[in-house]
Amino acid sequence: MIIAVDGPAASGKGTIARALAAHYGLPCLDTGLLYRAVGVQVLRAGGDPENEADALAACDFPGTLLADRELRTEMAGAAASRVSAIPAVREALVARQRAFAAQPGGAVLDGRDIGTVIVPHASAKLYVQASPAVRARRRHDELARAGHEVDVGQIEADIRARDLRDSTRATAPLKPADDAALLDTSDLDIDAAVDRAISLVEAQLGIGRKASS
Ligand code: C5P
After folding, report:
1. Per-residue pLDDT reduced to its tens digit, 162-180
2. 3-class secondary structure, 185
């Protein structure tokens, strides 16, 4: 069983993907980390994240980079959003994502184009969203817990800029797959969002409990 979870930054898709993976006993891949690794690698090499040659060279990043805490910073997210708009970079990362999805038993993958491009044949697809203000507040609280004090208005502006870049790029733009179930987490806490996600997945699989609207 392959579950695709897509959505914008700080929508809750990562938390939901990990919870679904735990619930169904599946491995989980946060595909945003791959783009973040490319972005950080470009910056460390002194390159430009919007330059195709610089970004392509960085696709060959060492596996250990995926565990680097710097990948979690807003700077890495912004660099990821830039390199990810380059079609050749997306192409360079496709095989790795499809191989992960194809492992025996299946997998959960979260990102922006999982249900539309990476595994359009996924058994279940969710598109997780939340309002920019709610997402900015969540990201702010997350950063505050990690000891970083950042202005929430600035975070919301960054989130809106990243949404715009991700949803208007020519290749694999951020958008729900036609057959994805939409899940708005703006007014849901984590437990309620995960519960709803499981119901939506099971409704798509045609098993278990029914999704309530
Ligand atoms: O999900 P996360 O915020 O870590 O993703 C960072 C950036 O990587 C996104 O803003 C997006 O531009 C890019 N990305 C993508 N396709 C994916 C996952 C992430 O373009 N499947």
Report:
1. 899 889 988 888 999 999 9
2. coil
Report the residue among 73, 112, 169, 175 best suited for mutation to probe ligand 1: largest number of ligand atoms under 8 A from its CB. Answer: 112
Give how far Cα 7 sits from Cα of 10, 42, 56, 166, 207, Å. 9, 25, 25, 10, 24
Question: 3 with 133: CB under 8 angstroms?
Answer: no
**Gap from CA of 89 to ligand 1 centroid (Å):** 12
Domains of the chain, start order: 2-205 (3.40.50.300)
Question: What is the band of 146 on the pLDDT scale with cuts at 50, 70, 90?
Answer: confident
DSSP state of 70: G
Answer whether 0.70 is exceeded by the pTM: yes
d(CA 151, CA 141) in angstroms, rounded, equals 11
Strands 28-30 and 2-6: unpaired
**What's the pLDDT score for residue 213?**
47
C-alpha 132/C-alpha 112 separation (Å) is 16
Tokens of 53: 């040659």
Round to whole Å and give the CA distance between 63 and 125.
28
Residues in contact with ligand 1 by the CB-under-6-Å rule are: 9, 31-32, 35-36, 77, 80-81, 84, 111-113, 162, 166
